[in-house]
Amino acid sequence: MFQDSLFSQPPQISPAPAVEPVQGVTKVVDYIRRIIEGNKTLAGIRVRGEVSELRERNGRLYFSLKENADILRCMVWANYVAKLPPFKNGDAIICGGTYTAYTPGSFYELIVSSVELTGIGALYAQFEALKEKFRKEGLFEDSRKRAIPAFPRRVAVVSAQGGKGVEDFFTILRRDAPFLAVIPVDTRVQGDGAEIDIAEAIDKAGKQDPDLIVVTRGGGSYEDLFPFNREPVVRAIVRARVPVISAVGHTGDVHLSDLVADKAFETPSNAAHFLADIGKRFRRRIDEAQARMLHAARAVLTARAQAFDFAGSKLSIAAREAIRERERRLNALERRLNAQTPQNRLLLRAQRITALVSRLDAASRYYPAPRRDLIGRFAERLNRLRGTALKPYGDILARYDAKLDGLNPHALLARGYAIVTVDGRAVRNAADVPDGALIEAQLEHGKLHARVERRELDA
């Protein structure tokens, strides 16, 4: 053990010589190292403390022993690691070994050759006690946790501004997630009472109307990160108005804030990448939906085009059949009309009278003269009757011919008139034809195609 006199008696200082010697840094540092390594009092002392900042590099272990605010750096050579019992951050242990000074960094350290476990460290004991308490309350259950919004737009970030981990977080968001409105909520994240500040910052962040709260800080020692294991921080996360993401410390660190948060990430950068990927995921979903819409639209257009072609084919067939049917009916009507014209009716009557006259002439040869005379007289009367009977019809026929000639469009065209049509429809009123319309004029011989440049309407 240390002798009390070692710390209670001030060192004896010889009077300074008249001229102080001057040495290089290397010699002074080496001299200090030899003093520490050659001190017989230190050589027999083991040291008790709480493990912190435990890490492995090239097979060697590096850690610090901490008591209150005092720290002793320790190192275990690779060939001794397997000989020592396993320990972790927060464990209280007793170490023995050789004290020396690491000259490149100008700090003293203990080269550990023996480790004795004395129980869980004070901080780790608090961690385990709180963890068990919150577990019994069901704060770690997935059923209690809230879903992260599918597309958050406002994110409140609770952290100390200026730390490297937090700066990486903001850099990633500015670069990859410009769609997010980030609301920084500055707070102290280490030291005595830091857990109160963090809890108040979480409550403050919830009042900023965010869609999501991120509680984050970069790496540090076990002690520096311990405020995120304190009850005020855990309670603040649980009562937050919106879902909370915890991203504290290094990869492999686990804090009570991670266990109660709605989602946890090992580092601030991982949390930032997750938020940035939200926009990428939605962009992919939009691209996929657009591709599906285009495919569906093409399929619908193809089906409609096929249906249109089929309907057009059926319509053409039906139109041709309808036209042929109308032509047959028109021809039948034309034959009936032709049979009922005055010319045909007069011709039939004349033929009948002629036939009767012929029959009378033939019959008169077989009768006696008186009867032949009588038949002759009948024949003359029939001839006169034919003349008188046909004359009114002849006059009527002449009048009808004159009317038909007046209604005959070809007769009108022969007199210099024209028939004007637009899209096959006859035009009777200039107001029905817009300026610039294409018209067709049928003449007696040929057609003219023209465009309307000016119209004159009746007053």
Shape: rod-shaped
* DSSP helical segment count: 14
Instruction: Catalogue the unreliable spans.
Output: 1-10
Write the CATH fold name of the largest domain.
Answer: Rossmann fold
Query: What's the pLDDT, averaged over the residues?
Result: 83
Annotation, overall tally of beta strands: 14
| Strand arrangement in the largest pleated sheet | 1-2-3-5-4
* Helical content band: 40-55%
CATH class of the largest domain: Alpha Beta
Main sheet?
Answer: 5 strands, mixed, barrel
Number of domains: 4
**Global Rg:** 59 Å
| End-to-end Cα distance | 130 Å
Helix and strand sequence: HHHEEEHEEHEHEHEHHEHEHHHHEEEE
- Corresponding CATH architecture of the largest domain: 3-Layer(aba) Sandwich
Strand content: 15-25%
* Assembly state (oligomeric): single chain
CATH homologous superfamily heading of the largest domain: Response regulator
Secondary-structure-based class equals alpha/beta
